[in-house]
Amino acid sequence: MADVRGCHLPEDLLYDVGNHIWVKELDDGKIRIGMTSVATALAGKLVAFTPKKVGRKVKAGRSCATVESGKWVGPAKSAAGGEVLAVNEDLRETPALANDDPYAAWMVEIQPEDWDTVRGTYTAGADVAAPYEAKMDEDGFAGCE
Questions:
Q1: Which of 2, 13, 93, 114 stands 20 to 30 A from 40 (CA)?
Q2: CA angle 113, 124, 34 (to 5 degrees)
């Protein structure tokens, strides 16, 4: 597991560093999307999670959910477009679960469109430390601890 300034970044995931999103490829071709530990540290304690509904389409580069904390409200963007197949109901009921473990508290599962092309836009977990270090420098973010 990569650890950048106290922020844990599991190596078995793909990352959209710019949007602080992780993606896990599932065996059946679906992908699971969640927020990174950096995202939850920046946002603070989450108070609301409003995902797209099951059956809805997510456009590539657009929001798959809206997340709210005491100091921030914004979209959770997915580089991959596709149909929402599942929503994490536990996270909807208790948004702060993402603060406790952002990698267990996934947001949505989608059936991605054009995954072979889109997959290449993500950073592999084994290679994510340097891009995240640069992003933290750019944003003036000291870290998760």
A1: 114
A2: 60
Q: How far apart are CA 133 and CA 136, in angstroms?
A: 5
Q: What is the 3-state secondary structure (H, E, C) of 5-18?
A: CCEEECCCCEEEHH
User: What is d(CA 107, CA 105) in angstroms, rounded to the nearest whole number?
Assistant: 7
Residue pLDDT, tens place only, 56-104 = 999 999 999 999 999 889 999 999 999 999 999 999 999 999 999 999 9
Q: What percentage of residues in the chain have a pLDDT greater than 70?
A: 100
10: domain CATH number is: 2.40.50.100
Give residue 15's pLDDT.
98
Nearest to 88 by CA among 49, 62, 58, 57: 49
133 within domain boundaries: no
Question: Mean pLDDT over all residues of the chain?
Answer: 96
- Is residue 57 within 8 A of residue 28, CB to CB? The reply is no
Whether 12 is covered by a domain: the verdict is yes
How many angstroms separate the first and last alpha carbons of the chain?
16
Alpha carbon distance 26, 69 (integer Å): 29
Question: In which domain, by residue range, is 56 found?
Answer: 2-121
